[in-house]
């Protein structure tokens, strides 16, 4: 390491130069030359730049370069940079010295392959950004139009950084806007920009930029190794997870890291473990680089991280030491077969230690950790659930077994991290159960499957309570926790009495045979293992094959990206439609333009696809729901699904799970006949339920088909008559009759069960789907079955809209709500005294509302015969809306009208039109309600 | 004074605050610069129906839709044609962005606490509640606005009333 010049030396040199500059101005040849003669020496001293004033030093070098090349503004910038460097040096010579030492340490460690490259990169980026902002600030001091292009370049370069924080991006882009306006002569933006840059600079400092004052405030260097170690642990995790995805992984860097850890154990308050750590490394390096090893390493990493964090918080970090010891010893003594080794050991522990059966109350964890856990745990739960369900069909599948195992293991790990003892215990006990299955002692079907699923449900419930805890409610283990845990631990003799697959102990008389010996034929129509399993699996393949790499991105950023891309598309179309460009005679320009259009289009598609998720997890949840419902109702069901890879907007997916459960309930409760009846009808004993997802004309259809008795048309009609929905003598069409099942409180069920029959379900389905701007369609053939299809929009962000014009404003109505549009013929519009206007269309009287009256707009077409009528239909009600004209149909992105305004009745949001203007999107339903109130 | 600085948000290093000054008619106002996100030229504003008249409408700010408030109307000043100098100051109120239409933006002004005096009693005058103090710079007197109060306080209340059953601000055309 070539040592830096001492701060004093540099200071002296700087001051000399500064005096020269202070007396000079740019035109002064003499001082200019003097400065040039002084500069090289100074720059020599600044290589390498002292750590603490690195930023200033680099800015100075940069300014010097400019100055030497005789660029305009270089002079001013140089003296600015000089001053800053002087100030920085004067401020902290002592810090400079200690920091320089820190650098040395860093350099010494540099040989490690696992050093945080990512982090260095970010740090580097941050520094660059700081430098750039300083340069910009320098330029702004005496802003000239000729600087603008260069400044814009600098801005663009930084705006392109993927890791740029949102606030920074906003500041920079508003700097850019000011610059552009300055260039256009519209605004003297110097001060505003300078201010913005100053703010940006402050922000950067708070992000840990080079002049992070926090660092300076810490007197000793003690914190640093810990923090560095924490970062390295993150690196380790990333590395491990990355390796896990590979077929052949090389874990040696991770093991090397362990060895290092052993060496540095003292500084990390891991002193007692030094030997144990090396031993662990030795044992681990003898093992094949498989998932188990990675699991071990990950678990170890989690604990270490927790330990270090607690050290950082100023605690002694003893909390996790025991656990670290445990896991290390575990690895060492069992040579990496966690299942066998661990379970037998801990099983005894659990059985002896009855404390663990006690309900846990309260959680000690910080917000962030909890949030992470709540975000991640459902994934693991889902993973386990799928695997367990698959296992039930195909009990010998090792892949699914491992998958379930891993899921439980992850849950255990992350729950352990938060000290959720109850979750850890359950997950652990479930792991043991799986371990037995892995060793071939049991098969995960029948009672064992129930047991595993029951523990999973318990974990779900716990997770729900953890969420509740985060929202401020207290945490208490679910009441059935001790019972389930006991069952899990004593699984060898399953209790005859245990019933119910979920936590809620509804006493539906459980089919008694369920508690019999494992492996016995299941009555409830679960497909016999192996036999139907494959068919049911459909396209599902064991999970490892399709494992992709994912990163977690906050939805805010994602939405931000999508917004920006939307803007880009609009800006692009505005440019591309420019006459000059459209009819350009320059072939190269034309070619480049078309290339640009293509890229923009691709980018847009990609951005939109970011919001899309597959229906898979929803379908998997439904598989579970169907299983439970079938068990509870005693109706045998074979549930299959297809098209689970169909993608749909993330928000839509979240919404449809509930309606789907209602549909499945309905089908099982009312649709599918009891086995005897089915046998008599010549149908297979187990009712078939098929859930399907597919695309159709810009919508996604999710439909559930059963082969049950179908909807009894007569019965529905009779019920409708008895409720007064159909008047005597009226004969509604088949279609219309089927729509009645969606009425609130409409049920033809003779008896109300705990599952359905209250007439709520289908109403929920309809309302949810309509809220998503979708539609429900029912097809039913008596005796053959029912098919209910949910027609859903591909995305919630985009609607297919009809652009209308009223006076000078454009309003957009969702096309799906428009039944027809026409220009009224003479006499079609009638005034009803006191009750407004109606239109007579095909013998039907439809109330008419004028949009311009509703919105109090001036300058609209008053004569209805020169305007257009849109007929809107919602909930079977029709209504006409008078607008001036229709300008066309187009897809628009829905955006909120800004948080500053409250939600306006009748307005669903705004859309940015091709012209860059905002047009309001109307909500037909609210609009009608509004109109009705008048 | 103490109250003042806290109300004005974060203070500069030496106790100075920076204010963006703008004018409405002959009056000069100041906005805490930290609340100013950017200044943009007047663009086409989409009217939003059923809003109080000081809500001039919404604009597209680089893909985000934000409401725009006509400060003249808000302060009960006479209407005026837009000029070349009319512009929109976009303010950031804890993440909520709003535009404010002003006649002209002047400059960024440094004011030390000594330059700021408490708002004199205006009697029943309406604007005083939005004013946190009077800044002095040479001969000029600048009214320092609590823009959050201007935009959010009364605003939301009156808009919320709109959602009630007996609304309808507009006249039938």
Report what the structure shows.
The complex is a heterodimer of chains A (934) and B (173). Chain A is α+β, with helices and mostly antiparallel strands and 934 residues long. Chain A has six domains: 7-217, no CATH class; 223-335, Four Helix Bundle (Hemerythrin (Met), subunit A); 337-486, Up-down Bundle (Four Helix Bundle (Hemerythrin (Met), subunit A)), CATH 1.20.120; 555-611, Helix Hairpins (Orthogonal Bundle), CATH 1.10.287; 613-793, Histidine kinase-like ATPase, C-terminal domain (Heat Shock Protein 90); 798-933, CheA-289, Domain 4 (OB fold (Dihydrolipoamide Acetyltransferase, E2P)). Chain A contains 33 helices and 18 strands. In chain A, strands 10-14-15-13-12-11 form a six-stranded mixed sheet. A five-stranded mixed sheet of chain A has the order 2-4-5-7-6. In chain A, helix 3 (54-68) crosses helix 6. The longest helix of chain A has 27 residues, at 367-393. With 173 residues, chain B is α+β, with helices and mostly antiparallel strands. Chain B has helices at 2-7, 71-74, 147-162, and strands spanning 17-24, 27-32, 36-41, 55-61, 64-70, 87-93, 96-102, 104-111, 116-117, 131-137, 140-145. In chain B, strand 10 (131-137) and strand 11 (140-145) form a beta hairpin. The longest helix of chain B is centred in the C-terminal third of the chain and has 16 residues, at 147-162. Mean pLDDT of chain B is 76; it is low at 1-13 and 160-173. The interface between A and B is large, with 49 and 52 residues.
């Amino acid at each position: 390491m070539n040592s830096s010049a001492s701060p004093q030396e540099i200071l002296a040199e700087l001051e000399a130069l500064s005096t020269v500059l202070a007396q000079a101005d740019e035109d002064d040849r003499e001082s200019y030359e003097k400065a040039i003669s002084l500069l090289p020496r100074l720059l020599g001293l600044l290589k390498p730049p002292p750590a603490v004033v690195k930023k200033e030093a680099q800015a100075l070098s940069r300014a010097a370069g400019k100055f030497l090349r005789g660029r305009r503004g270089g002079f001013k910038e140089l003296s600015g940079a000089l001053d800053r460097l002087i100030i920085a040096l004067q401020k902290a010579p002592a810090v400079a010295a200690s920091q320089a030492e820190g650098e040395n340490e860093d350099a010494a460690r540099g040989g490690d392959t696992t050093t945080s490259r990512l982090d260095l990169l970010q740090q580097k980026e941050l520094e660059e950004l700081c430098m750039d902002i300083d340069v910009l600030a320098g330029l702004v001091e005496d802003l000239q139009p000729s600087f603008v292009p260069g400044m814009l370049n600098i801005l663009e370069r930084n705006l392109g950084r993927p890791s740029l924080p949102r606030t920074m991006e906003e500041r920079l882009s508003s700097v850019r806007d000011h610059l552009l306006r300055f260039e256009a002569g519209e605004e003297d933006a110097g001060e505003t920009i300078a201010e913005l840059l100053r703010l940006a600079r402050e922000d950067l400092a708070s992000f840990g930029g080079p002049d992070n004052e926090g660092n300076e405030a810490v007197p000793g260097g003690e914190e640093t190794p810990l923090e560095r170690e924490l970062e390295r642990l993150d690196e380790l995790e990333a590395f491990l997870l990355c390796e896990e995805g590979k077929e052949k992984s090389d874990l040696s860097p991770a093991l090397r890291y362990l060895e290092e850890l052993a060496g540095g154990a003292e500084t990390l308050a891991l002193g007692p473990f030094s030997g144990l750590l090396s031993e662990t490394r030795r044992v681990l390096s003898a093992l094949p680089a498989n998932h188990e090893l990675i699991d071990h390493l990950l678990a170890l990493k989690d604990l270490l991280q927790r330990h270090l964090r607690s050290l950082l918080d100023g605690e002694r970090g003893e909390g996790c030491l025991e656990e670290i010891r445990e896991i290390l010893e575990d690895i060492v003594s069992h040579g990496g077969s966690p299942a066998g080794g661990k379970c037998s050991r801990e099983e005894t522990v659990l059985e002896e230690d009855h404390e663990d059966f006690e309900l846990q109350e309260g959680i000690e964890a910080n917000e962030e950790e909890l949030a992470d856990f709540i975000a991640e745990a459902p994934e693991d739960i889902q993973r386990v659930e799928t695997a367990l369900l698959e296992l039930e069909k195909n009990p010998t599948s090792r892949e699914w077994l491992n998958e379930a195992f891993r899921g439980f293991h992850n849950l255990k790990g992350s729950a352990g991290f938060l000290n959720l003892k109850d979750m850890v215990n359950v997950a652990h006990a479930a792991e043991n159960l799986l371990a037995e299955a892995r060793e071939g002692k049991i098969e995960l079907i029948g009672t064992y499957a129930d047991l595993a699923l029951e523990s999973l449900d318990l974990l779900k419930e716990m997770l729900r309570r953890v969420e509740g805890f985060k929202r401020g409610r207290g945490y208490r283990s679910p009441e059935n926790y001790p019972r389930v845990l006991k069952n899990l631990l004593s699984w060898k003799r399953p209790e005859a009495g245990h019933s119910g697959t979920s936590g809620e102990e509804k006493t539906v008389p459980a089919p008694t045979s369920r508690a019999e010996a494992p492996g016995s034929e299941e009555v409830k129509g679960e497909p016999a293992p192996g036999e139907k399993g494959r068919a049911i699996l459909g396209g599902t393949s064991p999970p490892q094959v399709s494992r992709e790499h994912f990163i977690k991105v906050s939805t805010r950023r994602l939405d931000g990206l999508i917004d920006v891309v939307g803007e880009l598309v609009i800006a692009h179309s505005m440019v591309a439609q420019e006459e000059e460009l459209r009819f350009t005679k320059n072939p190269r320009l034309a070619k480049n333009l078309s290339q640009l259009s293509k890229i923009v289009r691709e980018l847009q598609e990609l951005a939109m696809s970011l919001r899309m998720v597959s229906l898979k997890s929803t379908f998997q949840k439904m598989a579970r729901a169907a299983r439970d419902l079938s068990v509870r109702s005693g109706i045998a069901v074979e549930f299959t699904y297809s098209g689970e890879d169909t993608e749909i907007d993330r928000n839509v997916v979240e919404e449809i799970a509930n309606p789907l459960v209602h549909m499945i309930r309905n089908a099982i409760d009312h649709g599918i006949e009891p086995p005897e009846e089915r046998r008599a009808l010549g149908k297979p004993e187990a009712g078939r339920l098929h859930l399907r997802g597919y695309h159709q004309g810009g919508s996604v259809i999710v439909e559930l088909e059963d082969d049950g008795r179908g909807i009894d048309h007569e019965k529905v009609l009779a019920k409708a008559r008895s409720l007064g929905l159909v008047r005597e003598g009226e004969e509604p069409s088949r279609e219309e009759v089927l729509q009645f099942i969606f009425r609130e409180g409409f049920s033809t069920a003779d008896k109300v069960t705990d599952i359905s029959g209250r007439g709520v379900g289908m109403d929920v389905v309809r309302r949810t789907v309509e809220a998503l701007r979708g539609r429900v369609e029912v097809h039913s053939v008596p005796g053959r079955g029912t098919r209910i299809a949910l027609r859903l929009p591909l995305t919630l962000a985009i609607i297919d809209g009809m652009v209308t014009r009223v006076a000078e404003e454009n309003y957009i109505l969702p096309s799906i709500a428009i039944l027809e549009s026409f220009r009224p013929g003479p006499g079609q519009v009638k005034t009803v005294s006191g009750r407004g206007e109606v239109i007579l269309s095909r013998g039907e009287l439809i109330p008419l509302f004028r949009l311009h009256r509703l919105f109090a707009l001036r300058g609209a077409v008053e004569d209805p015969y020169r305007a257009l009528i849109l007929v809107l239909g919602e909930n079977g009600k029709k209504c006409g809306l008078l607008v001036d004209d229709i300008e066309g149909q187009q897809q628009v992105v829905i955006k909120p009208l800004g948080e500053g305004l409250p939600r306006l009745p009748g307005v669903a949001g705004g859309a940015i039109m091709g012209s860059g203007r905002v047009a309001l999107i109307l909500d037909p339903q609210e609009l009608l309600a509004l109109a009705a109130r008048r | 004074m103490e109250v003042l600085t806290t109300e004005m948000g974060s203070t500069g290093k030496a106790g100075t605050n920076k204010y963006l000054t703008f004018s409405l008619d002959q009056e000069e106002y100041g906005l805490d610069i930290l609340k100013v996100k950017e200044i943009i030229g007047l663009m086409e504003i989409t009217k939003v129906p059923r809003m109080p008249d000081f809500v001039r409408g919404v604009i597209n700010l680089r893909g985000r839709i934000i409401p725009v408030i006509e400060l003249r109307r808000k302060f009960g000043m006479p209407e005026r044609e837009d000029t070349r100098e009319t512009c929109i100051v976009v303010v950031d109120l804890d993440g909520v962005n709003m535009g404010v239409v002003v006649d002209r933006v002047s400059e960024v002004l440094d004011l030390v606490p000594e330059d700021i005096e408490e708002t004199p009693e205006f009697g029943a005058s309406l604007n005083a509640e939005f004013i946190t103090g009077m800044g002095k710079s040479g001969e000029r007197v600048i009214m320092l606005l609590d823009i959050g109060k201007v935009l959010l306080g009364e605003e939301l209340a009156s808009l919320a009333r709109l959602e009630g059953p007996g609304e309808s601000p507009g006249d039938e055309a």
